């Protein structure tokens, strides 16, 4: 089967590699450097399984910047382009998805267009009305940073929506490409599938916010945060997972998805969704103030990525904390070996670890790694479990 994947970010690349193990896959991206890396069998993203598959697996995968080449008679076109949250409209910017759908209409009208990008509730139905002759499926993605391919090889579920026949066919293809058997599959309406994606991520954000607020209380009251969390989490209804305090939920998905769901609630009574969004900002403000109470002369930021094994620091909460410290007049230096220049205006970058450690009076890190063992007396972290 010939499949086109548009977009070589985490979602697109993971889907392309997954499916290229059994099918012919052509990836389309506007970034020529990413295209070249894929064609040279080098992963453009830091992800253990992706790196391993590029170096060891037999993949029927090519990449191009030419839409006409990529859209030459595919059976499926998987759309995985960015949908950033626009704070002015309070909705995702879906222009990239809409542009690809028009390309599919023009160049591959017989293909099934599968939207993997996160979108507002009601978007797929509007696109189906705009392109009545296209078969459009929405299939939400549930990936962790640094585990994008792993979570496709071992999916928690496959959800597809739209007309039943193409949605079922696509879901069966994704389940067949996984390494697990008996993958739970849900075929549903497009509005319902869009809601599943946003409510899933908002629940995860709520859980992060809950344990972060527990930790804030423990700090202010002088309690052992870890002891409280462990005692609470022993209740099997709560569980000992996704409960490690952090500086706030960040990354590409949770901040924008919670805001999008809040926007979709317009006209519907709610309190909790507002509270989840507001809680995250409150937590990051608290971290800034808690650090400043120690009156450090130079604060070091050890890594901008929030997840171990990932190089993605888009919208990371530690970046917000960093900017808060900078704006309060604190000298800040970043250690981030994956970049060559500071991504934060007015903040120095130091890529030599030893120089960074010596220069920093206080070192902020979301998760305490082995390379910080020798400077534990300098570390500020809310990490209880030593894991994500």
TrEMBL record:
Database matches in SMART domains: UDPG_MGDP_dh_C
SUPFAM superfamilies: 6-phosphogluconate dehydrogenase C-terminal domain-like (SSF48179), NAD(P)-binding Rossmann-fold domains (SSF51735), UDP-glucose/GDP-mannose dehydrogenase C-terminal domain (SSF52413)
Gene3D superfamilies: N-(1-d-carboxylethyl)-l-norvaline Dehydrogenase, domain 2, NAD(P)-binding Rossmann-like Domain
Keywords, comma-separated and alphabetical: NAD, Oxidoreductase
Enzyme class: oxidoreductase
Keyword Calcium: no
Protein name: UDP-glucose 6-dehydrogenase
């Amino acid at each position: 089967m010939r499949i086109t994947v548009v977009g070589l970010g985490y979602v697109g690349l993971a889907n392309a590699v997954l499916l290229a193990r059994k099918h012919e896959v052509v990836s389309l991206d506007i970034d020529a450097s990413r295209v070249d890396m894929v064609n040279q069998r080098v992963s453009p993203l830091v992800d253990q399984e992706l790196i391993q598959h590029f170096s060891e697996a037999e993949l029927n995968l090519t990449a191009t910047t030419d839409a006409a080449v990529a859209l030459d008679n595919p059976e499926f076109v998987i759309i995985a382009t960015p949908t950033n949250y626009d704070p002015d409209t309070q909705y995702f910017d879906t222009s990239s998805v809409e542009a690809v759908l028009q390309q599919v209409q023009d160049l591959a009208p017989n293909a099934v267009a599968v939207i993997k990008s996160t979108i507002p509730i009601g978007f797929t139905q509007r696109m189906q009305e705009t392109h009545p002759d296209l078969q459009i499926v929405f299939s939400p993605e549930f990936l962790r940073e640094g585990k994008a391919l792993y979570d496709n090889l071992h999916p928690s579920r496959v959800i597809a929506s739209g007309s039943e026949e193409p949605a079922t066919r696509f879901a069966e293809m994704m389940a067949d490409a996984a390494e697990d058997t008996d993958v739970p599959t849900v075929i549903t309406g497009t509005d319902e599938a869009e809601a599943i994606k946003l409510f899933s991520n908002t629940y995860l954000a709520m859980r992060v916010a809950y344990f972060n607020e527990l930790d804030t209380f423990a700090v202010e009251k002088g309690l052992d945060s870890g002891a409280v969390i462990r005692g609470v989490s022993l209740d099997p209804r709560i569980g000992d997972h996704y409960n490690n305090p952090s500086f706030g939920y960040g990354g590409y998905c949770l901040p924008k998805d919670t805001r999008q769901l809040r926007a979709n609630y317009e006209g519907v009574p709610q309190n909790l969704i507002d509270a989840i969004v507001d809680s995250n900002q409150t937590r990051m403000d608290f971290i800034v103030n808690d650090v400043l109470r120690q009156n450090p002369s130079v604060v070091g930021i050890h890594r901008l990525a929030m997840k171990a094994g990932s190089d993605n620091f888009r919208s990371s909460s530690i970046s917000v904390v960093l900017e808060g410290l900078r704006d309060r007049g604190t000298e800040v230096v970043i250690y981030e070996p994956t970049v060559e220049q500071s991504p934060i205006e007015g903040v120095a970058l130091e890529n030599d670890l030893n120089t960074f450690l010596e220069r920093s009076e206080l070192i902020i890190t979301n998760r305490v790694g082995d390379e910080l063992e020798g400077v534990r007396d300098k570390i500020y972290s809310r990490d209880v479990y030593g894991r994500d």
